[in-house]
Amino acid sequence: MAQTVTPGTSPESSRPSYMYKMVLLGSMSVGKSSLAYRYVKNDFRELLPTVGCSFFTQTLNLDEATVKLEIWDTAGQEKYQSVCHLYYRDAHTALLVYDIANKQTFSRAKIWLEELEKRFLPDEIVIALVGNKTDLGAEREVTTEEGEEFARTKGLLFMETSAKSNYQVNDVFMAVVHELLRREKEKASNPSPYGRSTVDLGVSGARTRCCRT
Amino acid sequence: MDMLNNWDKWMAKKHKKIRLRCQKGIPPSLRGRAWQYLSGSKVKLEQNMGKFDELDLLTGDPKWLDVIERDLHRQFPFHEMFVSRGGHGYQDLFRVLKAYTLYRPEEGYCQAQAPIAAVLLMHMPAEQAFWCLVQICEKYLPGYYSEKLEAIQLDGQILFSLLHKVSPVAYKHLSKQKIDPILYMTEWFMCAFSRTLPWSSVLRVWDMFFCEGVKIIFRVGLVLLKHTLGSSDKLKSCQGQYETMERLRALSPKIMQEAFLVQEVRCWRWFGGQFAQFGQCCLTGLSLGGHMRRSMGAAPKKLG
Q1: Do you know which Gene3D superfamilies this protein is assigned to (chain B) (predicted)?
Q2: Which of B65, B67, B106 best tests the A interface by mutation, with the highest count of A CBs <10 A?
Q3: Above 80 in pLDDT, residue A210?
Q4: Residues of chain B contacting residue A29, judged by C-beta atoms under 8 Å apart
Q5: Distance set, CA A83 to CA A7, A150, B123 (Å)
Q6: Alpha-carbon gap: A152 to the closest alpha carbon of chain B (Å)
Q7: What per-residue confidence (pLDDT) applies to B88?
Q8: How many angstroms separate the CA atoms of B68 and B52, rounded?
Q9: What is the pLDDT of residue B84?
């Protein structure tokens, strides 16, 4: 992927740098880990069920900014739900993933959204609804329109993907990053106490945190 | 061999010798049998003759079966037993996990149980593995796989408090980064390190774990934390929360290596006293009740 650079090697420029924490949420076996794995390593394989959490990083060198995404990939089994808030604390963005061939996982994504709505204000977090496994089109249980409609009413980004056949995986992550940057710009032109400061990725240890407590 | 053939005598009179034997590593050819003796699963099986076959014939709750089936091909995919879908190991894993959901319907299936059952199946037949799993879930790690994960959260807090004594530097760092123990110890504890450590270390840790109980899991966790975050030098490259978490997910092979790890865990014998004392404090101070007592105690000493 052309936009990938290793942290700290971005050339001196006036471009701002941002760090965003992204959390992947959704039922088990909807493909959260596979999406992250496809996006970061551009590969697909059978992954062990996530127990607790696993981590991925991706640095994007875009025209307007350098963005470092810290991806927190969570366990999907309902048993872990009671501790999940510990994972998405301070997240800037969330991908709510469901399996288009499993209606139940779509309903579950709605419950996740309610949970997030309790903990974040709408302008605090960018949420994308992701219908994964389009490669299972023949077994589809959730139509594209249903997903789209729900996302529209809730003001979420929406995209269908397939981690297996590499369909729109990069696109959904990019859509989220662009939305984060758009909000960043909006805040810059209309400063608020919730604005995030920029961070130089070259300096180890320099971190941004938003002002939520 | 004499140990296993005259188990009751050895357990009653020479428990120290057994502990030492387990710390030195159980010979591979005896491991499966020894684990059954140590855990008490052998006795449990004898008391419940036919129970596993009975459960094995039942269909099971589709809710759990669906989840189990999704996980079957995702356990130790490189081990010969689990390489082929529908193969022997694959079927036995399904049978053991399904039987557990029928044995404890209120608990059902937890994804972290699959790697535990898979390791057991590498050492014993399905029925024996089932009763060994029962012992782990009920005696060694009670409540770990139940709804809400309360037991694991509690043990996370205990681990963190112990870390304060063992490595104040690591403790301070994790506190400063606001990293809740749940974020790093869930997989360690719930899978009894089977997905964390190199294979030879897993077996050595399990040998001690079956003999001495959950305190071995605590000690391993503390060794890993201490040697990963225990000096200012080590902390230089993990200043942020994410960097720290990444470091704890990708531990240095050196500290997970069998000889080093076992040596470190054994060295902390002195720690046992403090450990029990601490448990007592928690019990009286916080009145946390049953789980704490179970989790702080060693494995059942007298079997049968």
Answers
A1: putative rabgap domain of human tbc1 domain family member 14 like domains, Ypt/Rab-GAP domain of gyp1p, domain 1, Ypt/Rab-GAP domain of gyp1p, domain 3
A2: B67
A3: no
A4: 70
A5: 30, 26, 33
A6: 31
A7: 83
A8: 18
A9: 74
pLDDT in tens, B21-58: 999 999 999 999 999 999 999 999 999 999 999 999 99
Section A104-121 average pLDDT = 95
The pLDDT of residue A17 is above 90: yes
> In a 10 Å sphere around its CB, with 0-12 CB exposed, 13-18 middle and 19+ buried, how is residue B200 labelled?
middle
Mean pLDDT of chain B: 87
CA distance A78 to A98: 14
In whole angstroms, give the CA distance from residue B211 to residue B22.
7
Using a CB-CB distance cutoff of 8 angstroms, which residues of chain B are in contact with residue A75? 111, 186
Asked if B74 reaches chain A (Cβ–Cβ under 8 Å), the answer is yes
The distance between the two most distant Cα atoms of chain B, rounded to a whole number of Å, is: 58
The DSSP result for A130-172, as a single string, is EEE-GGGGGG--S-HHHHHHHHHHHT-EEEE-BTTTTBSHHHH
pLDDT, chain A, mean: 86
Name the phi and psi angles at A62, rounded to 5.
Answer: -95, 170
d(Cα B215, Cα A125) in Å, to the nearest integer?
Answer: 41
Determine the 3-state secondary structure of A109 from DSSP: helix
> Is A55 near chain B, with CB under 8 Å?
yes
Contact A51 B186 (CB under 8 A): yes
Distance from CA of A82 to the nearest CA of B (A): 5
DSSP string computed for A4-45: B--TT-PPS-S--EEEEEEEEEESTTSSHHHHHHHHHHS---
Q: What is the pLDDT of residue B299?
A: 41
Q: Residue A212 pLDDT > 60, yes or no?
A: no
Q: Are A136 and A100 in contact (CB under 8 A)?
A: yes
d(CA B14, CA B105): 38
Query: pLDDT tens digits for B45-102?
Result: 999 999 999 999 999 999 999 999 988 888 777 777 887 777 788 899 999 999 999 9
In the chain, the amino acid numbered A94 is A
A183-187, B13-17, B67-71, B150-154 — which is least confidently predicted? Answer: B13-17
Residue with tokens 């500290």: B255
Q: Mean pLDDT, to the nearest integer, of A140-146?
A: 97
Give every CB contact of residue A160 below 8 A, 6+ residues apart in sequence.
A100, A130, A131, A132, A134, A144, A147, A167, A168
Q: How far apart are the first and last CA of chain A?
A: 36
How far apart are alpha carbons A65 and B72 in whole angstroms? 43
How confident is the model at residue B86, as a pLDDT?
Answer: 74
DSSP B148: G
Q: Is B201 helix (H, G, I), strand (E, B) or coil?
A: helix
Say how far apart CA B303 and CA B47 lie, in whole Å. 12
**In whole angstroms, how far apart are CA B141 and each of B48, B182, B203?**
21, 16, 18
